[in-house]
Amino acid sequence: MNKNLLYRLYSGAFIGVCLLPAVLMPFVKADDSKENRVLSQAPKIKNEDGSFNYSILSDLGDYFSEHFAFRQQLVTADSRIKTALTATSPNTDVIDGTDGWLYYGPTTDDFLNIHTMNSRSIFGICHDLRLMNEYCIQHGASFIFTSIPNKNSLYPEHMPFNYSPVDAPDNYDLISGQLSGDSFYLDMRSALADTGSNIPLYHKTDTHWNDLGAYAGHCAIMGALGREACPAENWSVEANGRLGDLAAMIFPAEDAKDTQVHSDYQFTYSYQGRFKALDDITINTLCEGGEGKLLMYRDSFGEAILPYMAEQFASAEFSRITPYRLDESVFMNADTVIVEIVERNLPRLAQTAPFMPAPEVQETKTFFTPSVYAGDLTEKENQPVIDWSKIPVYIGQNGSYAFISGALPESFFSGDEVRVYLTAGGKTYEAFRASEYSECGNGFSAYIPAEQLTGSIEIFTQCADGHAVAVEVPSDKFIRKEQ
Fold it and tell me: Any residues with CB less than 8 A from the CB of 111 and at least 6 apart, and which?
């Protein structure tokens, strides 16, 4: 056999191996259930409006890269080699720690204490939570806010050695420092750290806490409410009790089971209405032995804690809906409101205001309104002319409420402790500081009765040092937005 024939056979075999994933793609389907994401759909030649899809070649490339045959086996092999040889993860969403621990990549900034929110945003979040608490109290309901710590906040010892935090507070510390004196605030990081459990409260290869961690969180919440916790005991460890979501992301071909911790407690609550899984947007439960009515806004960490909370309340609604709904109708079915959010998502509180009537301000206040705002107004024929592009005011409709939101220029602020008020239809309301239109804490949002929005509105700030700035926004400057 001559060398040319060997070269041809070798080249043919090489090309055949390269083509094999594409040829077998229709017969070997990729399973996206393990990768914590939805794989791309097959591209179409035309868009929904009938126009030609000019990005079809790019879409085809994306589709092939996510669906070629044996993709998950090849990804798993690549990940095993890289984690074994270099102790690094090939997936930026997964951090390869020591002793088999995996961490969620998007928690890196929190762990390193970098890219934290500014003081104005932190004040705004705490201000909004206090308004929520006051509103719940006015309607005879208890309110609890808590943030579940990231896994590497509670178990930093297994993070790679090259992840070295700076000597500064993180977002959790900044918010906790401002809310530490508020009775509605529960410092979950301290509560979990104080359990002294010799069994880890979080999964090694999953983002979330295990059942024992969720139970510890449940005990802390019930303690903050002044109530007894679900009497779960006799905990046991199951070696292969849960598919670790982080392990599945880098080892998708493996049945990467994590340990789970179980109690022998027999739950008596029942689901009401349509129930498919614990990640449903809304879940309703009933329990004959429970007391009170619960509304709990939660994220994925709420899945494991749900059974314990459901067991202690006669009726409960667990919701993943945002914005959080706190209009008056809520209190017909809830005497306890809990807001739970994981540490890494705390910045979202600065972007989305709850659906709740803005508190009406009854007392008379004195405001100072300068005739010219530096950088925002110019003199023209002795009349101030406003650059409205610097003061965008968005108006929407949500049921019987008008939603007003926007961002204010820096000249309206002095320091970080700033309250924003709106006057419309002869009434004054205090606005939330959260706004999707601001990334630096200069936003505001308010739901006011729609009948009050009859013409122009006045927006003004009051700063802790006495500085106050106001501007009247005529209705023709409103930016209409669909809710």
Answer: 103, 150, 152, 153, 156, 159, 163, 165, 170
Range of the domain at 438: 360-480
Share of residues in the chain with pLDDT > 70 (%):
75
**Domain boundary pick from 327, 350, 373:** 350
420 and 390: one domain? yes
Burial of residue 444 (number of CB atoms within 10 Å: 0-12, 13-18, 19+): buried
Query: Which of 331, 350, 369 is the last residue in one of the domains?
Result: 350
Q: In what order do the strands lie in the sheet with 457-463?
A: 360-361, 427-430, 418-424, 457-463, 468-473
Q: How many other CB atoms sit within 10 Å of the CB of residue 260?
A: 18
Q: Give CA–CA dist 430/75, Å, rounded.
A: 53
Q: Is pLDDT larger for residue 422 or for residue 81?
A: 422
**pLDDT tier at 82 (50, 70, 90 boundaries)?**
low
CATH code, 443: 2.60.40.10
Nearest to 310 by CA among 210, 222, 195: 222
Per-residue pLDDT reduced to its tens digit, 185-223: 999 999 999 998 899 999 999 999 999 999 999 999 999
Mean pLDDT of 295-311: 97
Residue 196's pLDDT is 87
**Burial class, 358, CB count within 10 angstroms (exposed 0-12 / middle 13-18 / buried 19+):** buried
Assign 239 a pLDDT band (cuts: 50, 70, 90): confident
Are the C-beta atoms of 198 and 280 separated by less than 8 Å?
A: no
C-alpha–C-alpha distance, residues 232 and 229, integer Å: 8
Q: What is the structure's pLDDT at 92?
A: 82
To which H or E segment does residue 398 belong? Answer: strand 393-398
pLDDT-derived band of residue 418, with 50, 70 and 90 as boundaries? very high
- The per-residue pLDDT for 466 is 81
> φ, ψ for residue 148 (rounded to 5)?
-80, 125
Q: Which pTM was predicted? A: 0.83
- Do the bridges between strand 427-430 and strand 270-272 make them parallel or antiparallel, or are there none, so unpaired? unpaired
Q: Is the Cα torsion angle 297, 298, 299, 303 positive or negative in sign?
A: negative
CB 361, CB 423: distance < 8 Å: no
User: The tokens of 297 are what?
Assistant: 């806004």
Bridge partners (DSSP) of residue 427 are: 424
Q: Are residues 163 and 249 in the same domain?
A: yes
